[in-house]
Model the fold of this input.
Amino acid sequence: MDGLLDISKASNVASWRWKIARPGYAWSFPRDHWAHRGYHMEWWYFTGHIEAVDEPDRLFGYQFTVFRIGLMPERPALAAERASTDLLMGHAGISDLSTKEHRFGDLIYRENPMLCQFRDPPDEIIAWSLAPHGTNGCWLLRWNGGGFDFEMKDDEHAMAFCLSTQPSKPLVLQGSKGYIRKGGGRTAASQYYSFTRLMTKGTLTIDGATRRVRGTSWMDKEFGSSQLTEQQVGWDWFSLQLDDGRDLMFYLLRRKDGTANYRNGTLVTADGRAHYLKTSEWSVCSTDSWMSPSTKAIYPMRWTVDLPAEGFCLEVVPEFPDQENLSHIESIPSYWEGAVRVLSRDGKRMGRGYVELTGYGENSRPAM
Done:
């Protein structure tokens, strides 16, 4: 299909040719919201919980992710004007929490002025692409001067959204001043920041019915040139927004035997101060599982999260199990991306969030 490329081939380029994440990166905002060419991998990741303005009981979770995947660190001197140095991959999901239905659409194109582009400031557009084949229109990510606007449409899955965000908390640099380790190798790290609370409004369309929506989102931005080591098969990633105003991010990178060999976490206070958690300060344990009827992958499905120093023990419970993202693109593995509830040990609501689970089931190891 014109414009497409096997992502597994794109990820096999020798990592030493690429820029790598390093401590002491000189952050500059808003410039760093745009693309960082020369790094092998980069993504803009949004998840959120939104409600229909005119139907407060109609609740949705959503995901919107734009990936930049490097084909080569820089354009060859003799390359044609339209030679591609990057791929753009887009993922979008909607979980209808009322009907317990999950929809997912994706796309991937070589960067080309007719297919997709990553732009540079002062252009307000960060990235755009054509919609998936068979759908008129574009997917778009834009900086609006204070937050992000983004939109997608996928006619095959009868879904679309157009959302605008503004931060209610300041940006947080994850890890050590925006540098976070993911393994023992030289390149196993990323530059990483988050907006842990974004006030969100816009429209969401399912099966031709468009609703005005509002809610709260989470945004992550990472770039680097790392890939999973041979011992790592995937990760479990959590973003939790607590009702008392605190936010919690943590992830575990898993070995083939299921144990974690790298894990990191950050607790953001209600006033936006970040506390970087030592591994001794928190623990997470899966207490249930679910088998996908589509891929037969067995995913963990309920977790106990302990942070003794903060005085709480949380239960993280999926809104419903079947929130697996099933790609129609060959070589893109399936993964679980779902809306979750956060409860106290006695079952009282404490917040909500999103969980991402990769590397479960056959041929599901991420190619990044």
Observations:
- The CA atoms of residues 155 and 294 lie 22 Å apart.
- The first strand starts at residue 41 and ends at 52.
- The chain has a mean pLDDT of 92.
- The helical segments are 7-10.
